[in-house]
Design a protein that fits this description.
500 residues; alpha/beta; Immunoglobulin-like; Neutral Protease, domain 2; 2 domains; 8-stranded mixed beta sheet; 5-stranded mixed beta sheet; 10 helices; 23 strands; 30% strand; binds tryptophan; binds zinc ion
Length: 500
């Protein structure tokens, strides 16, 4: 089923006007009382991923109940099977005639709103109406447009909260992000590594897949007996086993951006500890790590409590728990999934402090648009620098100097850090020039203003999102300096800074 993106947007824009002109208005956007209703937008308005996230409502909570059968042993194909039931509590922010969720590569079997079952229909052509409570799917790989559209009846008035149940299933594969890098529900021989930045959560549950719509989560993940499923937050109860299948229960009660959701499945061994302040740490370490990787991982994970204490300079640790998932059979990179980052093959000390720093920078305070990704990666890299200095390794100054040694004609300097484009989210300059920007800012405004600024940043935007302009305003205010030129040189100019 393919529907064009252009038509969809025209439809969104046209619904109110048409609905008011034409009678009977039953399915064109006006109810019997004469209130007008519109379609929620098919994207959150992020230029890098136009169809990620959705408009017209806020998701409050996701209750994800998934059953997963991993692939058989080689040479069986590397695909699994996912059967899901997602229950969403969502609140309309406008009068809704229709609204979308993002869902990629999964087939919807059943949709219920407030106990009423919707009928599946083919995607209606532009401007055409559909009778009654209905849903349809569009899966357009070329446009990266993967949408489940729901037409609620009765229509939903702004401010109302509904309970939406979506049942779905699909064969799991190894999805790729816009750059061709594995992400989302990545099927592995021993389970699945679930790492969904920037918009890969839609590969495993129906979601408004953009950081501007944070929600709380609960999980029931059912896997073959012997496999372990690890998600965000804390166990809600002990796992239960019936007829060869074990269900793992997790609860993540802190607001969370969708890309930070995980439900990784594998042959993990649990380790529980806590920080001196009593924060629970739950690590899940694959039993298949090589001896070297296991030694590296053990040494790094043993430092987590100390790292959390060190990062406390940016404000209190923002969530109810911490820990790690270390996967042997993996995608090759780490991700700061909320409370419980996922590591590939081994967790090095630098990577662990990086992913922990993301709990403040990226997770508590998330990017408003993906163009703001340097606010995640610059801070996490800066945290690596100062941790190294604290531990008696390279100083932050030395690491800053090393960045500044990159010759001016190196392509490293040709990225606009505050607007790298969707293919540039994870380029080196986002990390290293981002961190250098923070170090240079600290040198320019002084340690006190810098530390006051960063604490204010975290407390002001905690549980929400912020963008580069917010950052600039806050640091100008806390320092009392005009920093236009500074930010222009460091963040907005694709050249090596010389003076600032
Ligand atoms: N955000 C991850 C980190 O820095 C990295 C990441 C996510 C990434 N997706 C990627 C890196 C794709 C390279 C390519 O911890
Ligand atoms: Zn990072």
């Amino acid at each position: 089923m393919i529907a064009g993106s252009r038509g969809r947007r025209i439809l969104v824009a046209g619904v109110v006007g048409l609905g008011m002109l034409l009678a009977p208005a039953a399915s064109l956007g006006v109810d019997h009382g004469g209130t007008s209703f519109v379609s929620g937008a098919s994207g959150a308005g992020d230029a890098y991923f136009p169809f990620a996230g959705n408009g017209g409502y806020d998701v409050r909570h996701y209750d994800l109940d998934v059953t997963y059968a991993p692939p058989g042993p080689a040479p069986a194909p590397l695909t699994g099977r996912l059967d899901g039931e997602a229950t969403l509590r969502l609140r309309a922010t406008q009068n809704l005639d229709r609204f979308n969720l993002d869902l990629r590569g999964m087939e919807v079997d059943r949709v219920m709103i407030d106990g009423r079952q919707a009928r599946e229909v083919a995607p209606p052509p532009d401007g055409e109406t559909v009778e009654g409570l209905a849903y349809w799917q569009v899966q357009d790989d070329a446009a990266r447009q993967w949408e489940l559209t729901i037409q609620p009846r009765p229509r939903i008035k702004a401010g109302r909260t509904v309970r939406l149940v979506v049942r779905y299933h699909g064969d799991t594969t190894r999805p790729e992000d816009i750059e061709g890098v594995l992400y989302g529900w990545v099927t592995t021989r021993d389970g699945a590594m679930v790492v969904s930045e920037p918009e890969g959560s839609m590969t495993w549950y129906p979601v408004s897949d953009h950081p501007t719509d944070k929600a709380t989560y609960s999980f029931e993940i059912t896997v073959p007996e012997g496999k372990v499923a690890v998600a965000n937050g804390l166990p809600a109860r002990r796992p239960t086993t019936r007829q060869g299948w074990t269900t793992w229960y997790w609860r993540a009660p802190d607001l969370q951006a969708s890309y930070l959701t995980t439900a990784s499945v594998g042959d993990y061994e649990f380790r529980r500890s806590e920080t001196p302040a009593g924060l629970p740490i739950i690590d899940a370490v694959d039993d298949g790590l090589t001896p070297d990787n296991l030694a590296t991982t053990n040494a790094s994970l043993a430092l987590q409590a100390e790292m959390i204490d060190f990062l406390d300079q940016f404000g209190r640790y923002p969530f109810n728990s911490a820990g790690a998932i270390v996967d042997d059979d993996s995608v090759g990179y780490a991700l700061e999934t909320q409370t419980r980052p996922v590591y590939s093959r081994a967790a090095s000390e630098g990577t662990v402090v990086h992913e922990l720093a993301h709990q403040w920078f990226g997770n508590a305070v998330s990017p408003t648009r993906w163009a703001d990704i340097w606010l995640n990666e610059g801070w996490a890299t800066y945290a690596e620098w100062i941790w190294s200095e604290e531990q008696g390794g390279d100083t932050a100054q030395a690491q800053f100097d090393a960045v500044l040694e990159i010759p001016a004609d190196d392509p490293f300097w040709h990225t606009v850090v505050a607007d790298p484009g969707p293919l540039g989210l994870f380029l080196d300059p986002i990390y290293d020039r981002g961190a250098a920007t923070l170090f240079a800012l600290r040198t320019k405004i002084g340690d006190d203003a810098f530390l006051t600024g960063v604490r204010r940043w975290v407390s002001r935007y905690d549980d929400g999102t912020a963008r580069t302009a917010d950052f600039e305003v806050l640091f100008e205010s806390v320092s009392g300096q005009d920093l236009d030129e500074f930010f222009d040189v460091w963040l907005h100019t694709p050249e090596k800074p010389t003076t600032w």
